[in-house]
Design brief:
By secondary structure, the protein is mostly helical. About 75% of the residues lie in helices and about 0% in strands. It has helices at about 5-10, 15-50, 55-70, 75-105, 115-145, 145-155, 170-180, 190-215, 225-255, 265-275, 285-310, 315. α5 crosses α8, α8 (about 190-215) runs antiparallel to α9 and α9 crosses α10. The radius of gyration is 20 Å and the shape is globular. About 50% of the residues are buried.
C-alpha cells in the first residue's frame, strides 16, 4: 500500500487483536523504559514521601549513595521491571479496548479519526479501569523504593529482623497480606483513582494529538518513526506529571506510610500536607519528574510503537 493511500485506506485491527498486541507491546515498553528511568523514579518517590530528609534531587541522590551505595538508586530494579511490565501491559491493553469502546459508541470510523476529546475519554476510562489491577503493583513498588528511609528510622527495632525490602516484592506482598489482609493491597486506591483518571486523560490525549500533528500528509500516526515516538512520548509524560504531581505525592505517601499506620487516606493526607507543610511540599521533586518523563515515557513509546508495528506488520505494510 502506497503511503499516500494509507490515511484513506487505514483500518483498525479487531478489538481482540489490538488488546493482545497492546498487551505484549506494553510489556516490552515497560521493561525498556523502567530499566532506563528507575534511578530517577526512586529519587522522585523518596522526595515525595520524605521531603523533610532531602533538600533537592541531587541531595537525595547523594544521601542514598552515601548510605546504600549506587545500588541504592537501583534498589528494586528487577522487581520494578517485572512490576512495570505487568502494569504497562494491563494499561495499554485496557487503552486499546477503551479506545474501541469510545470509537464505536460515538460512531467514529477509525482510531485515526478520533479527536482530542475522544482520546481523552478513552484515556480517562483506561485510568479508572486499570487502577483495579495496578493499585497492588504500585503499592509494592512504592514500599520497596521507600524502605531505606523507613528502615533507617527504625534501625534499632529492625536489628534482629531482615528488612522487608531485602526480601523483594514477594516479601512485601506477604507482609502486607499478613498485616492487613487483601484490603491492604488496596491502600491508596482512592489516591490512585484520583491520579490515574485525569492523568491518563491528559497522557493519551497528548500523545495521540502530538502524533497527529507531526505525521506527514497521507501518513497515519504509526508512520512517525522512533524519533517521533520519543518526542510524542516525552510530551505526553511531561504533560502527565505536571498535571497530576500533587496527587502523585499524596499517593506515594499513602502507599508507603500506610505500612506504619501514619496516614488515613487521600483527603486526610492531602489536607495534612497542606496544613503542616504547605503547598510547596506537594510539588517536592517535581523538577526530577521532567527528565524522568522525557527518558521514561519517550523510551517507552519507542519500544512500544516498534513492537506494535512488528506485531501488526501485515496491516501496516
Amino acid at each position: 500500500m502506497k503511503k499516500r493511500d494509507r490515511a484513506e485506506n487505514y483500518k483498525d485491527p479487531d478489538t481482540a487483536r489490538k488488546a493482545w498486541t497492546n498487551f505484549v507491546a506494553g510489556s516490552v515498553g515497560g521493561a525498556g523504559s523502567t530499566s532506563l528511568s528507575h534511578p530517577l523514579d526512586s529519587v522522585k518517590v523518596k522526595m515525595q514521601t520524605f521531603p523533610q530528609l532531602y533538600n533537592g534531587g541531587f541531595h537525595c541522590m547523594k544521601e542514598v549513595i552515601q548510605q546504600d551505595g549506587i545500588r541504592g538508586l537501583y534498589r528494586g530494579l528487577t522487581p520494578g521491571v517485572i512490576l512495570s511490565m505487568t502494569e504497562a501491559s494491563i494499561r495499554y491493553m485496557t487503552y486499546g479496548i477503551c479506545q474501541d469502546i469510545v470509537r464505536k459508541a460515538l460512531s467514529v470510523e477509525t482510531s485515526e479519526k478520533m479527536t482530542l476529546l475522544h482520546n481523552a475519554l478513552a484515556g480517562g476510562l483506561t485510568g479508572f479501569l486499570a487502577t483495579f489491577a495496578s493499585c497492588p503493583i504500585e503499592l509494592v513498588k512504592c514500599r520497596m523504593q521507600g524502605m531505606l528511609e523507613i528502615t533507617t528510622a527504625k534501625r534499632a527495632a529492625l536489628e534482629s529482623e531482615r528488612p522487608i525490602a531485602m526480601r523483594g516484592p514477594a516479601g512485601v506482598l506477604v507482609h502486607v497480606l499478613r498485616t492487613d489482609g487483601l484490603r491492604g493491597l488496596y491502600h491508596g486506591f482512592s489516591s490512585n483513582i484520583a491520579r490515574n483518571t485525569p492523568g491518563e486523560m491528559v497522557f493519551f490525549a497528548t500523545y495521540e494529538q502530538c502524533r497527529f500533528f507531526i505525521k506527514r500528509p497521507g501518513q497515519v500516526k504509526d508512520d512517525i518513526g522512533p524519533l517521533g515516538s520519543f518526542f510524542c512520548g516525552s510530551c505526553a509524560g511531561i504533560a502527565y506529571w505536571v498535571s497530576i504531581y500533587p496527587l502523585d505525592s499524596v499517593k506515594s505517601r499513602v502507599q508507603i506510610l500506610s505500612s506504619e499506620g501514619k496516614v488515613q487516606g487521600l483527603w486526610h493526607t492531602f489536607w495534612s500536607i497542606l496544613r503542616a507543610e504547605g503547598v510547596k511540599k506537594l510539588y517536592h521533586g517535581v523538577g526530577y519528574s521532567i527528565p524522568r518523563a522525557i527518558i521514561g515515557s519517550g523510551s517507552h513509546f519507542v519500544f512500544y510503537d516498534t513492537t506494535r508495528k512488528i506485531l501488526l506488520r501485515d496491516l501496516t505494510s
